Amino acid sequence: MSESQASKTYEFKAEIKQLLEIITHSIYTNREIFLRELISNASDALDKVRFLQQSGQDVIEPDTELNIAISVDTEKKVITIKDTGIGMTESELVDHIGTIAKSGSADFLKSVTEQQGDASGIIGKFGVGFYSVFMVADKVVLTTRSAQPDAQPMAWISDGLGSFSMEPAQGDIARGTTIEIHLKSSTEEFADVDRIKSIIKTHSSFISFPILVADEKVNTIAALWREPKTSVTKEQYEEFYKFLTYDSNAPMETIHIQVDAPVQFTSLLFVPEHSMDMFGAYNKDYGLDLYVRRVLIQRQAEELLPEYLGFIKGVVDTEDLPLNISRETLQENVVLRKIASTVTKQALNRLKKLAKDDAEKYATFFKAHEKTFKLGYSDYANRDDFAELVRFNSSSMEKSDELVSFEDYVGRMKEGQTEIYYLSGPSRDALELTPHMEIFRKKGIEVLYLFEPIDEFIMDALRKYKDFDLKSAEHVDTAALKDFADAAEDEKPVEELDEKGKTDLDALIGEIRQILGDKVTDVRLSERLSKSPSCLVSPDGDVTSHMQKIMRLVTKDTSVPKKVLEINKDHPLIRNLIRIHQNSPSDPFISTAVEQLYESALLMEGYLSDPHKMVSRINSLLENSSSWYAQMKNLS
Ligand code: ADP
Ligand code: MG
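That is the input. Now the predicted structure with adenosine-5'-diphosphate docked in place:
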């Protein structure tokens, strides 16, 4: 060997050092998962070489059997894992396990902190699995030969502290990767054939390549989805689910599909009980693992599932695609599209059945996955199913976590009601207090409460449920609600205004228009208010105020939108203003009160950006009223 080919030492990337620090120094409940991670990598490497061969590319040693062989040296406390997979070239070795920070490592570190340092439960989810070997090893020697013709076999050695070294491998190296694990003295228990076999049975029984331990094949169940449904037990489904997802809980629903026409395929799908999104974001990696005749073609193929069902995990296996299909053409593939549409329908049917049979369990499902599932409003082809499955909170419920379907709502509609009403707001408490709710409460008409921005997109996209229009409570034609009988009696009915009173009211409204000028588009009498003196409403046909806020956030618009100020003529405050105005039209109290009403309404709608003027006005009003109050009480 020439000098330039001698051993080179590399520092691990900073993030990986940090990761290794955590892996080597924390206490683990579950160290044995290192084996699952290395076997999973070996299996991936075997999948890759098989894929190359099937798509007609050149690989060395094409007749080698595809398997994973594990041996244990009980004396030296060394475990060796050898696969005949795709191997790694020198640069792949540097890139994949060493100097380049893995995309998952930052997320992993963040998540470990949240799990209080125990990484074993989440290690596989972030693409940092290889390093888990340092939970048990104080030295790892990895020898690899790439399947690419002419690649130099390499050896990689590390103690998992700060660096690793690499050198060309000596001797006759076969295709694939061999990993020698020198166990730490504290983990010598793993140098035991029976222990190794039992770990494999627990974590790796669904690996589709033979795993040989001391020449005995340990994994025996493969391709569970191909087994007839009647012969698979609940435990087997569960075990396979855990293998597939790393979830420690059982799945909420298991859907096993075996279809012969128009496309032949089998599929095994699971609905997890909890969201798998680690950081609350929408699920970015979703999709089903695609197999063709039991051969893995692609993990998480997005073509097989619409994004809104992305919480579903599972596999699809079909006979109707060529094994050498290129991953690039999956997208336009007609067979895949047919499979996807069948899978989607079956999943929706299962959810509908769940909703019907077990509303409580369905609610659990909905709360876990609603963020993703609500994106389904855009699936035009399955719109009716989506409308049946989506849920909201509503004014007829007692608590904010209770869920209502459109069907429930329709069942409670008033005789003659033709619209389904909804209202957006940040919380149930806020919605209960908005003036827009007053008329609905008075008439006993249910309103769906929307808390998330996406909810309004759903309403806009659906427009109707069955024959009933979906309508924002803000845009209700209050005249249309007049004819419904009052459900709640007014506490003390107010006297109607006589003819003179009406004229005086008109005059007051004229005055208010003058005072507010172009801050509002109009001032008019309200039909919707019973408890509040006034409120702001959007001019007819405008978008809802919630949607307007979203749009303004996007466009960074901070101006105050112009709205209509509605006045409740029966409110004592307005009645007093009528009297004051009639006595002296230019009384300054009127403009003070009107400014205050307007700014209070702005505050309720979330548009009051500078409270100073309002607070000083309130203080002076309080000062006056406290004087009157003291006088009234005859205090000295
Ligand atoms: P992940 O498997 O999620 O990519 P790992 O940390 O487990 O993350 O592995 C890192 C990378 O190292 C793999 O993606 C692969 O490129 C490479 N690798 C690991 N083990 C093997 C192996 N046995 N054969 C070939 N490549 C391997
Ligand atoms: Mg891995």
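The chain has four domains: 8-217, 224-362, 392-481, 499-632.
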